[in-house]
Amino acid sequence: MAKIQMKTPLVEMDGDEMTRILWQMIKDELLLPYIDLKTEYYDLGLTYRNETNDQVTIDSAEATKKYGVAVKCATITPNAARMTEYDLKEMWKSPNGTIRAALDGTVFRAPIVVKGIEPCVRNWEKPITLARHAYGDVYKNTEIKVPGPGKAELVFTDENGNETRELIHDFTGAGIIQGIHNTEKSIASFARACFNYALDTKQDLWFATKDTISKKYDHTFKDIFQEIFDAEYKTRFDEAGIEYFYTLIDDAVARVMKAKGGFIWACKNYDGDVMSDMVSSAFGSLAMMTSVLVSPSGVYEYEAAHGTVQRHYYKHLKGEETSTNSVATIFAWTGALRKRGELDELPELMEFADKLEKATIATIESGRMTKDLALITSLKDVTVLNSGDFIKEIRKTFEEM
Ligand code: NAP
Ligand code: MG
Predict the structure, then answer these.
(1) Among 98, 28, 133, which Cα is nearest to 301's?
(2) 352-381 burial: b if 16+ Cβ within 10 Å, else e
(3) pTM of the model
(4) For the chain, is the Cβ count within 10 Å smaller at the N or the C terminus?
């Protein structure tokens, strides 16, 4: 059979440890035999990031802006232990942080739903995609521990030196204060990324804040979303048969628990941090969670939500067998290939991505899976496979289809 041809290359960002091993296996077994794979390769493995003073990460982000679609392997974010382990020149920043800053993007995380791995919430039938605003609020705060009585004020000085003041509190004893901020530009980018993604995936969009209490701060989020929606997206949402709705955060939480799934839940930075861990663990496993970074200009970077699975890698290095789940990494590739197919009008490439995802899910649903899933599945008589055999079984299922 002739291989599927591509037009534009994908930006391929290789990574670290066990996921780097899976990366190669996925390419060899599931992609290269079927696709004339065109990629522009960037090695984001820590060794090469260190060699290039992290220039390779910046280059890969620039290439993503140029081509529009990237697929990324999990990478190490250096800490003190990694400094010694890799003999690093510097404690390089998180590649995800660098790429996110360059693309000004929003991260959407969605679980891969399979029969036999049931969500804890019984009525969740479809995935819930969580969109987290990745700038500001408590993550860029300024704090003071107040030692004793005194007056705390919020002061803004404009470019001409004019001051605006608001009393925070007249302290009669010790206490604490915190200053947080956000920018209209960042909130607007977040809103557009969410609206675009909803249109792209034909799902309803929910957004919630606490605007009844925070009448200026949170209310600004609500207003910016509504203004952009009315001006730029309302007609397109109507045409696509999808809905945008705003509610209070506590109401949203209550509704999410009762919902069937199949929508996007946009959250402010802190809500997104907390709720994405809640939603992902309730769906079963971090290894079954995909993640895509979408920029307001419509650039996409696909990856798995989990890390480099370090513990498994050390076993692998000792020659021991591993059973590492490659599903989220496979779905990162299929997500990127499908998007490339869509942009380049290559229906075969899109069909290939759909089929490979179906084969992956069918393999698990037939009882063949990695150890992490075998531990939580409701299926009986499952076969636990090692990292390589699981990928080979997916190929078998794919060939049968
Ligand atoms: P991790 O790689 O996600 O792994 C944590 C644990 O979760 C593993 O030890 C394993 O549990 C389980 N797990 C995660 N993914 C799995 C998979 N695909 N198959 C089977 N089990 C899986 O997180 P970490 O150990 O905290 O971080 C390791 C490195 O990854 C760090 O250097 C961190 O900086 C990096 N990281 C990168 C990204 C990214 O690039 N997006 C994200 C997060 C972390 P058991 O050991 O119990 O089997
Ligand atoms: Mg968190």
Answers:
(1) 98
(2) bbeebbebbbbbbbeebbbbbbbeebebee
(3) 0.89
(4) N
286 lines ligand 1 (CB under 6 A): yes
pLDDT one-digit tens code per residue, 318-373: 999 999 999 999 999 999 999 999 999 999 999 999 999 999 999 999 999 999 99
Helix or strand or coil: residue 357?
helix
If one looks up domain 1-105+298-401 in CATH, what number appears?
Answer: 3.40.718.10
Rounded to whole angstroms, the Cα distance separating 332 from 329 reads 5
Ranges for all domains in the chain classified under CATH 3.40.718.10: 1-105+298-401, 118-141+181-283
Distance 286 CA to ligand 2 centre (A): 12
Q: Cα separation of 310 and 314, whole Å?
A: 6
Return d(Cα 244, Cα 301) in angstroms, integer: 24
- Tell me which H or E stretch contains 272: helix 269-283
d(CA 278, ligand 2 centre) in Å:
9
User: At the topology level of CATH, where does 118-141+181-283 sit?
Assistant: Isopropylmalate Dehydrogenase (3.40.718)
Beta-strand relationship, 10-14 and 300-304: unpaired
